[in-house]
Automatic annotation (TrEMBL):
The chain crosses the membrane at residues 7-28, 48-68, 88-110, 130-156. Keywords: Membrane, Transmembrane, Transmembrane helix. Pfam families: DUF456. PANTHER family: DUF456 DOMAIN-CONTAINING PROTEIN, IG HYPOTHETICAL 17883. It comes from the Bacteria. This is DUF456 domain-containing protein.
Length: 170
C-alpha cells in the first residue's frame, strides 16, 4: 500500500507543477496532497509540522493568486473600477472558460480595461491598468511554480531518505 500511496503522491506533485501554469488546476493544493499521501505511508515518519506549514503555504498561495492581479491593476494606475473589473474578469474566467486556458489571462485584462473605460479613463490609462493585471497574473504563476517546485523537493528529499523502507517487502 505504501508503494501505491507514494506513486499517487508523486503523480499529485507532477499535476501540481502543471497546475502552476494551467489555471484550471489548483497546483499548490494538489502538490500538498502529494506530500500528505507520502506522509501517510508507514515508512515515513509523521511530521505534522511540515504538513501544517506546507498546508498554510498552499492555502496562502491560492489566496494571494487571486489578489495579485488586483494589486497589479492598482500599481499600474488602475482605479477602483479597474480593480473591480479585474475581479469580475477573474470570476468570469472560472464561470465561462470560453478562451480555455488563456481565459484566466484574457478575462482579467478585459475586465480591468472595461472597468477603466467605464470610469472615464482614456484608452492609454485603461491599457496600462489592464497590463498591470496581466503582470499580476504572471507574478502569481511564478509564485505557484516556485511553491510547487519546493513541495516537489520536499517530496523527493523525504522519499529519498525513506526509500529503502517504502520499497521493502516485509
Amino acid at each position: 500500500m505504501d508503494i501505491v500511496l507514494t506513486i499517487i503522491g508523486f503523480i499529485f506533485i507532477l499535476i501540481g507543477i502543471l497546475g502552476s501554469f494551467l489555471p484550471v488546476i489548483p497546483g499548490a493544493p494538489l502538490s500538498w496532497l502529494g506530500l500528505l499521501l507520502l506522509y501517510l505511508t508507514k515508512a515515513v515518519e509523521d511530521n505534522w509540522w511540515v504538513l501544517g506549514i506546507t498546508l498554510a503555504v498552499a492555502i496562502g498561495v491560492v489566496v494571494v493568486d487571486y489578489l495579485i492581479p488586483i494589486a497589479g491593476t492598482k500599481r499600474f494606475g488602475g482605479s477602483k473600477s479597474g480593480m473591480i473589473g479585474t475581479t469580475v474578469g477573474l470570476i468570469i474566467s472560472f464561470i465561462f472558460p470560453i478562451f480555455g486556458l488563456f481565459g484566466i489571462i484574457i478575462w482579467p485584462f478585459i475586465g480591468a480595461f472595461v472597468g477603466e473605460i467605464i470610469n472615464k479613463a482614456d484608452n492609454k490609462t485603461a491599457l496600462k491598468a489592464a497590463f498591470g493585471s496581466f503582470l499580476g497574473f504572471i507574478t502569481g504563476t511564478f509564485l505557484k511554480f516556485v511553491v510547487a517546485i519546493v513541495f516537489a523537493g520536499i517530496f523527493i528529499r523525504t522519499f529519498w531518505r525513506y526509500k529503502a523502507l517504502i520499497f521493502s517487502f516485509e
